[in-house]
Amino acid sequence: MKKWLVIAIGLVVILALSGALGYTLSRGGQAIAAWFWYSPTIAVEGGQTTDDWFLYSPTIAVEVGDSFLLSLKSNPTTGYAWQVQFDDELLELVDTKFEPSSDAIGAGGVESFEFQALKEGDSEVTMVYERSWEEGYIEKVIFNVHITEAEN
Fold first, then answer.
1. Average pLDDT, the chain
2. Tell me, what's the pLDDT at 46?
3. What is the pTM of this model?
4. For the residues 29-54, what does the mean pLDDT come to?
5. How far apart are CA 121 and CA 118, in angstroms?
6. Which of 8-12, 66-70, 137-141, 144-148 is predicted least confidently?
7. Residues with Cβ < 8 Å from 36, sequence gap 6 or more?
8. DSSP 3-state helix, strand, coil percentages of the chain (rounded to 5)?
9. Phi/psi at 15 (nearest 5 deg)?
């Protein structure tokens, strides 16, 4: 009987610690570690990507003039929004849109950001999910962008 009690307590402790670790990582830990927990929320369309979520940040390879779309889960009704930082000499934010997952009031959904490559170079797109009136953030994702000249 005691053996099962020890096993049950051990499992509860492990689950509690793994939940705390996930929370710590998502509250400002390393972006790569946060991707381990949040990778299903991210979609990339356009360009070539390498996205070994466990070891590397995703790299998006595009040519000058090409565009790509980053889509992440979002729920603006909670006050949280994705804040985007990028080098505006290399990239242009062409469009943003939010598509709710249902017609229900307060429904979450997917927020998409369309970028266009302006000139050759390497850059990062940093996306932080936060409330503007609070310190800290829930999630931070960094995408590496490699832009090459268009082949004729």
1. 73
2. 59
3. 0.65
4. 42
5. 9
6. 8-12
7. 25, 53, 54
8. 25, 40, 30
9. -65, -40
Q: Give the CATH architecture of domain 2-148.
A: Sandwich (2.60)
What are the Cα distances from residue 44, in Å, to 5, 11, 12?
Answer: 46, 36, 36
Distance of alpha carbon 134 from its chain centroid, rounded? 19
Report residue 133 as tokens: 């009136």
Q: With the CA atoms of 28, 87, 92 and 139 taken in that order, what torsion angle do they form, in degrees rounded to the nearest 10?
A: 0
List the Cα angle 77/80/86 in 5-degree steps: 130
Question: At residue 114, does pLDDT exceed 50?
Answer: yes
Alpha-carbon distance of 3 to 64, in angstroms, equals: 64
Domains of the chain: which residue ranges?
Answer: 2-148
Q: How far apart are the first and last CA of the chain?
A: 74
pLDDT value at 11 more than 60: no
